[in-house]
Design brief:
Structural class: alpha+beta
Radius of gyration: 17 Å
Bound molecules: nickel (II) ion
Strand content: 15-25%
Number of strands: 9
Strand order of the largest sheet: 2-1-5-4-3-8-9
Largest sheet: 7 strands, mixed
Helix content: 25-40%
Length: 196
C-alpha cells in the first residue's frame, strides 16, 4: 500500500471513529427507549415513501437479496461514487441483477422528494428504489440500521450531510448479512452472486 493510500485509510478510519462516537453520543442524548433490536441487532420496522410516492415499510428489504445504502441526492462525492460502483457490480451480474434490489434511503428528506430521488437514481439504474419521508421517519430508519447522518452547515449558506457510506448486504428474509465493499465491482459481483 502506498503511503498516500495508507494515510487515506487511516484518515478515513479516524473520521469514521469520530463519526461513530458523535453518533453514539447523539443517540444516548436523544433516543427514547425503543423496541428491542431484532436478531443481529440491525434493522427493524419503518415507514417511508418510495420514489413513486408509495408508502412502504421494512418489507421493501425482504424477498430479494438487497443492498441498502444511506445517502442524499446533493452529495458531492460519496453517493455518486458508491452508486456508480454498485451499478458496475450489477452490470457484471447480467440478468441476475434482477434478483438484487438496491435501496437508497435519503438522509436529507428536507430536499429529497420522491420525484428528485426518482430522477437521481434513474440516472444510475431505473430499478433502484429511493426512500424518503419525514425527518422523524428517516431518523427512525437510520437509527434502526445504526447509520450515521448529520447535517452540517456550509460556509456561505446551505448545508451538506455527513453520512455513513457503508453498503449493507441484506438477505431475502430482510436480515443483515454484512457490509459489502463495492470498490472492486468484480469482487462485489462475486460476493453478490454467492448470495442469490
Ligand atoms: Ni453521500
Amino acid at each position: 500500500m502506498s503511503p498516500a493510500a495508507r494515510f487515506s485509510l487511516i484518515a478515513s478510519s479516524v473520521v469514521l471513529a469520530i463519526g461513530l462516537a458523535v453518533f453514539a453520543t447523539a443517540i444516548t442524548l436523544t433516543q427514547r427507549p425503543s423496541a428491542p433490536p431484532q436478531s443481529g441487532g440491525l434493522g427493524g420496522p419503518f415507514q417511508l415513501t418510495d420514489q413513486d410516492g408509495r408508502r412502504v415499510d421494512q418489507s421493501v428489504l425482504a424477498d430479494r437479496t438487497t443492498l441498502l445504502f444511506f445517502g442524499f441526492t446533493h452529495c458531492p462525492d460519496v453517493c455518486p461514487t458508491k452508486l456508480f460502483e454498485i451499478t458496475q457490480a450489477l452490470q457484471r451480474l447480467g440478468r441476475d441483477a434482477d434478483r438484487v434490489r438496491v435501496v437508497f434511503v435519503s438522509v436529507d428528506p428536507e430536499r429529497d422528494t420522491p420525484d428528485l430521488l426518482k430522477a437521481y437514481l434513474g440516472s444510475f439504474d431505473a430499478r433502484y428504489v429511493g426512500l424518503t419521508g419525514t425527518l422523524e421517519e428517516v431518523a427512525a430508519v437510520t437509527r434502526a440500521w445504526r447509520a450515521y447522518a448529520r447535517k452540517v452547515p456550509l460556509e456561505g449558506g446551505g448545508y451538506t450531510v455527513d453520512h455513513t457510506a457503508a453498503v449493507y448486504l441484506i438477505d431475502r428474509q430482510g436480515r443483515f448479512l454484512s457490509t459489502l465493499d463495492v470498490s472492486d465491482p468484480e469482487r462485489a459481483a462475486a460476493q453478490l452472486r454467492a448470495r442469490l
